[in-house]
Write a structure and sequence with these properties.
globular, four-stranded antiparallel β-sheet
Length: about 180
């Protein structure tokens, strides 16, 4: 069972996708007027669910295993800050998010601002401002990567460390960093 309460949902549904056997399953989860939802699904092993919100403009990933109850709470506009609890992986990742909440919030706001700038008249947004935003985003991503590396070194046997390696290091242009973690 996956239940949640998310603010800033603009649609009356969330799309959930996950892999079952050899198929990708996509389900629609109804959200009530108070932005609450309850999703029951039969799975037989640890499964990764991607939840897509607000016309698929934001998404979050959760992990669930057979018989588990997972809860989700947060803001759909800031998917990196959504708290997911209900098993060790989700709890550990939420702990990492909470420990780095300020960095994640700054990055989320910067990304939201840059998205809204794209929707505005581009003549109003000068190149210097965009370069500054990119520079700030790179700095925040670097700080988050260092925090992730620190977490991974402190928790090398946790599955949450593997998720952080995937999120922060797999597509890195610095292979030495991936080797280090």
């Amino acid at each position: 069972v996956i239940k949640g309460n998310l603010s800033n949902l603009f649609d009356s549904y969330i799309l959930a996708s996950y892999i079952s056997a050899d198929s990708v399953i996509v389900d629609t989860i109804a959200v009530n007027e108070k932005n609450k939802f309850n999703y029951k699904v039969n799975i037989d092993t640890l499964t990764t669910f991607s939840l897509f919100m607000n016309n698929q403009e934001s998404a979050t990933v959760i992990f669930a295993d057979k018989g588990q109850k997972v809860t989700i709470k947060g803001d759909a506009l800031f998917p990196d800050l959504i708290n997911v609890n209900g098993n060790e992986i989700n709890d550990d990742l939420t702990e990492f998010k909470l420990a780095n909440q300020d960095l994640l919030k700054q990055r989320g706001q910067l990304l939201a601002d840059s998205q809204s700038d794209k929707n505005l008249d581009t003549t109003r947004t000068n190149a210097l401002s965009r370069n500054e935003d990119v520079s700030n985003l790179n700095l925040l991503n670097h700080e988050l990567t260092l925090k992730a590396e620190e977490y991974i070194k402190e928790n090398p046997s946790k599955l949450s460390s593997l998720i952080l390696i995937s999120n922060f290091f797999m597509n890195s242009d610095k292979p030495k960093t991936l080797e280090r973690v």
